[in-house]
């Protein structure tokens, strides 16, 4: 049952979108992947935007939050209740939510399969009737890169972009002086180096089409973070 | 099956979970809007309620964990 739902709701639409874009964009798989990535990210944009704005606001409210934490130091329950009230009063929500996260994970898996099967010209029978069959799919993009094979250059570029993105994310985080947050900042810094290394590793073993997807997503994230963090006013009005 | 799912949840929590895994330092306030987090809730639900009820409860919980719901504490209820 799950596999049928997954197939009709995730795999088939993604496959058809990719082939449609492939047909439109001069039979270049690379351009099709770039276009598809941008479309997916635009659809997910609202959920990211909301979260980034909240993060920014919270960073500005950090002193107030510290006060509350200090006040209810010995009573965890009262503390979390006070924090919740504070969030509500100032209309911020520091949390993400799991549903969009899971949707993204599933899309990523679907995309993985689509790129694996689609690039090899399989699964053509899954095309919708109104999408013309492109025949054999050329995996060469821009006459340069074979997207069905791993490509170390793309992987390294993606790793560098990933590094920039993590650094940007950490720079936006609140800085405070207590010890536990020192710890977590150290871990953040570790991750900042670890993530790009992992990206290069996976990028140099997986088909370059997937690495290209990751590259475009990362560029999109960098741009998105840059504009959202810039456009949110630096000091939020605090009630209380 | 039950233990396979619990194992997968543990692996998830130890790795890519934004609340319990490598990325938790990116989310200083926690990621999930509910407490306990969705994965923790699912773990407890499957452990306490068994496979079918547990998985159903987990699915409902994740559907509830969307950008339109209010953050709150939400523990597994035992019938």
Estimated radius of gyration of chain A: 22 Å
Largest sheet of chain B: 2 strands, parallel
Structural class of chain B: mainly alpha
Please indicate the percent range of residues of chain B in DSSP E strands (runs of 2 or more).
Answer: 5-15%
* Main β sheet profile of chain A: 2 strands, antiparallel
Task: Using the alpha-carbon principal axes, give the shape of chain B.
Answer: globular
- Which regions of chain B contain 5 or more consecutive residues with pLDDT less than 50? none
How much is the average pLDDT of chain B? 85
Shape descriptor of chain A? elongated
Provide the helix percentage of chain A.
Answer: over 70%
Helical content of chain B, roughly? 40-55%
Give a short synopsis of this structure:
By secondary structure, chain A is mainly alpha-helical.
Question: What structural keywords apply?
Answer:
heterodimer, A: 240 residues, mainly alpha, two-stranded antiparallel ribbon, 7 helices, 2 strands, 2% strand, elongated, disordered C terminus, B: 79 residues, two-stranded parallel ribbon, globular, membrane insertase activity (chain A), Membrane insertase YidC/Oxa/ALB C-terminal domain-containing protein (chain A), chaperone (chain A), cell membrane (chain A), protein transport (chain A)
